[in-house]
Prior knowledge:
The complex is a heterodimer of chains A (587) and B (357).
Chain A: H1 6-12, H2 16-19, H3 28-48, H4 61-68, H5 70-102, H6 106-112, H7 114-121, H8 124-135, H9 140-147, H10 161-186, H11 189-197, H12 202-230, H13 234-239, H14 247-256, H15 261-286, H16 301-360, H17 377-384, H18 386-419, H19 425-437, H20 440-454, H21 460-484, H22 488-496, H23 501-529, H24 533-538, H25 546-556, H26 560-586
Chain B: H1 2-5, E1 12-21, E2 24-34, E3 39-43, H2 50-58, E4 65-70, E5 73-74, E6 85-88, H3 100-110, H4 115-128, H5 144-156, E7 162-166, H6 174-191, E8 194-199, H7 202-208, E9 211-216, E10 219-224, H8 226-231, H9 236-241, E11 246-255, E12 258-263, E13 266-269, E14 281-286, E15 292-293, E16 299-310, E17 314-320, E18 326-332, E19 343-348, E20 354-356
Parallel strand pairs in B: 3-8, 3-9, 6-7, 7-8
Antiparallel strand pairs in B: 1-2, 1-4, 4-5, 9-10, 11-12, 11-14, 12-13, 14-20, 15-19, 16-17, 16-19, 17-18
Bound molecules: adenosine-5'-triphosphate (ATP) and magnesium ion.
Amino acid sequence: MSAVPAAPARSGGMPAWLRRPNALWLAVPGLIFLAVFFAYPVGELLSLGLRNPQGGAFSLAAFQRIASTDVYLRVLGITFKIAGNTALWSLLLGYPLAYWLARMPDLFRGRMLLFVMVPFWTSYLVKTFAWMIVLGRSGVINNLLMGSGVSDQPLELLHNEFGVMVGMVHAMVPLAVMTMLPVMINIDGRLVQAAQTLGASPSHAFWLVYFKLSLPGVAAAGLLVFISSLGFFIVPAFLGGRRETMLAQLIITQVQELLNWSFAGALAAMMLATALIACWIYDRLFGISTISGGEAQEGKGRIRDLGLAILALLARASGLVADTSRKLIGKAGNRVLLPVFAWLMIAFLVLPTLLVIPLGFTSSQFLEFPPPGYSLQWFETYFSSPLWIQATIRSFLVATATAFAATCIGGFAALALAHSRTRWGGLIFAFFLAPMIVPRIVIAVGLFYLFAKLGLVATDLGLVIGHTVLAIPFALVTVSAILKTYDVRLDQAAATLGANRVRTLTSVTIPLVKGGLIAAFLFAFITSFDELTIAIFVSGGIKTTLPKQMWDDMILQLNPTLAAVSVVVFVIVTVLLLLAERFRRVS
Amino acid sequence: MTGMRGESPPKLVVEGLCKRYGATTALEPTQLSVAEGEFLTLLGPSGSGKTTLLQLICGLVEMSEGRVVIDGRDQSDTPVHQRDIGLVFQHYALFPHLTVEENIAFPLKMRGRPSAEVKQRVADALGMVHLGHLSGRFPRELSGGQQQRVALARCFVYQPSVILMDEPLGALDKKLREHMQIEIKRLHRESGATIIYVTHDQEEALAMSDRICLMNHARIEQLGTPRDIYERPRTAFAADFIGISNILRGAFVESQGRRMLKTAHGVFHLPADAPAPGAEGAALVVRPECLHLGNGSDNSLSGRVSEVVYAGSETRVIVTLGEGQAITLRLPAGVPAPTLGETASFGWDSDRAVLVP
Ligand SMILES: Nc1ncnc2c1ncn2[C@@H]1O[C@H](COP(=O)(O)OP(=O)(O)OP(=O)(O)O)[C@@H](O)[C@H]1O
Ligand SMILES: [Mg+2]
């Protein structure tokens, strides 16, 4: 490889390592990027927790401080409890919905899935804002209850555990459903039929066969929801009270107000350790590769027997329940239970956000529902405010740059992984997905620390880098999915017909996967466009992004302008999402 | 075979069974009666409703109309898991999360059998399909033929009195398929079960069945013993679908005081048992082995030899007639074959042909 002069470059038009390359080279830019802007800062942050804030010598002071008062341990406990409960409820509510979707004909499912995709991609800020309006003291629910005379004083639905749980579960059910769904779709429908012809009642067939086979998906969903919930701060900040303070909020306070780096590092280390332990347990039980669609390993011995016995018990119990309900509401009634539940879930996912739309057009100075009249004044306020408009423009520019970077890096990585058969493939894939698993707040604080040294704080470049780290996994997954269905023989055909590698790429591969690339671009764009965590740290002063501006406003005071902005954000994200889905499908 | 069993009441009766999906009819109203211990094959082209008929019988698909009666009891409203029916799926449908042993034990456990009995019967079933040494494996660790045997064992282990098999050998290669055909016949003999078997493969159907139920366009085209269907096809479709047939279409004419069939290639005698005249046109079906070279038969034809295929025990000769129609002859080993390109005359005895509408 060393002694290749210019001659071959003329014939092939490219360097030698590309002409007869191990395709894995294509992943190298991405690996370097993530090593510098993801692995290094996260590692550095963790080591900060072990250093003395003044000199930098090894010290456990930060951890001693955590252990010395029970404040931090209590917050850790609360974070655990909320994340665990969120995972539990998301699975309980999401499973029937995913099951309902999985059993639909493909075409219909694609359409119904939008009711899950749109809430999934809707900005957390918009969703949280919506719940504040729905659950507030003079919110929609209290209005309804008092208006109809069910209750004569407003219920306390906000700033307590209930509020946090509603917001968290609402935010996480889509993730749970979208993680479980592919596993469920892959379950061969004839297995359940086979079980029934072999004498299993419908409930036995479900629990012993279908449910058992869907368990890896359930566990993966539980894991992802749990880990994502660990790093939440938007929902508890607005929907919770003092007693629902979560770890991420503490980290933000430590960094932004107290500038105590080592302590923030120690807290982040705790969060990351929790996430890693959860991953480790999952790997022990199911094998980590099932998250990316690999085959589940089947346990051996007593635990497995116990598991099957429990499923048999569940089957018997649910058989009794089904029999009773069949007696109560009849066979036909039983049959509509699932669709009714699924539609109620869809209403729960979609309606709160839709309620924000009329509020954006209110004529009132207050966020009352229903609006007393309609006007465009709040959109005028938004469009005439230089602060909002500059933030919007910045968000657009940053998102565009991010989308380019993430699509290139993720696309090449996907190509590399699709064409290489090394045993490193799985590991590299996992590394590229890691930014999705590591809590965002940990990445954000780590990047802030790195950027402070590089002078990138409060720059657009810093934002783009940070957002690209977060967007790469989405781009990679989208492009990989397209390449998986791509017929490699087309490339081989092109090669036998005389196209070199670059020509093959530009005139065969890329045109064929174009839809997937555009989808990846749009997903990366959306990821950046409504990203808040990194923006909180990296976009300082007047250089704010749209989500950061919303966050600042929401902390100060809820106002109808926020509703108007929410409408704008919701519409933009939804339109881009629908476009992305379209392109993904066409491909 | 069915004649012998004619006196005992049928095991399975299907009356007016019918399935519609919106505007498409997957199965026209169908009557079928299967005797105890019979091996009945459903044979037919893709989309002719074979799978639909099986699924209706075992209750996996809800019928639009009709009745399914087993042992004289109407099963139409019995849920799938309570029917005494076994079904072997085309791609086996083994439970991937259960071992071979657990897969086979599944139907027994569902019936709440005591564990000692389960153990014993699973071991017996494994022995029956020669898989005792693989009991602890998971299905994905087995070859296709082994998976197939597990599927068979899982079905036979609980001794259902009616067993339905939907193209159970469809995914196996030819050699293995022939081997498994013998195994299935043995299991059938040993268990005495009534089997309804679906296949695409006419040779398989001819070799294995007591009776063949030939299906086409969501209907039963012809029902009879393999010999019946091969030697006396009632329609051109049946003649064409099973075995190789030479079909000569024509119109009836009166000649020398006898009814004859006038075709593009000549006027031919009708077989003695040809049905009374109804329509004006019909077709003569002549099997390749009924054709002889030379002019010794009472119907004769000639054409150019366009292909000679040597196949070991026989030689197949294809003769192209004037109009371009190709006729296949089957010469037993030892009979000298004509050379390519020469003009050959051949013929058949009238009674070896079959007249179909
Ligand atoms: N769920 C369904 N919805 C609509 N039409 C169906 C459905 N299932 C089967 N059909 C139609 O019913 C007809 C019969 O199908 P069936 O599966 O019984 O055919 P088959 O004889 O088993 O074919 P093959 O040999 O290909 O398995 C086909 O035309 C098919 O398209
Ligand atoms: Mg079929």
